[in-house]
Amino acid sequence: MKFWWPIGLIVCCSTAYQVGVKEISSGIHPLAALVLTYLSASFASFLLYFFLAPKGENRRKALLSWNPWALGLGCSIVGIELGVVYMYRAGWTVQTSFILTNSLIVAALMVTGALFYGEKLKLRQLAGAVLTLAGIACIVCQ
Prior knowledge:
Blueprint lengths: L4 H20 L5 H23 L6 H6 L3 H22 L4 H23 L6 H18 L2
Helix pairs in contact: 5-6
């Protein structure tokens, strides 16, 4: 269970995320929606941190420590959120947009893994990527 519960959490929360973004995409200004989103996310993260952080950890020191990757992650998340809101405003459907964006992300991560992390690309993986891109073309190009 330790191995699979994060996958279930991601699937459930990603589904709720797509529904939530689709529903707010036309109601208010996208940046106002993001402000409200990140206020609630900050509150939830803060509470979870204090309930789930290991005992004895210097929580104050950890919260005040400088980590440029955490700042970059925050900027990346804002870009993703803003892109998704505008994607739905542009008329993309939940089904098509999700499979397209996530497949392109997988392709980008395959290249990133190979170039920056020394991960090996196997012929089977490349063949799967080609089949996936062909499938995306069938779905998107109607």
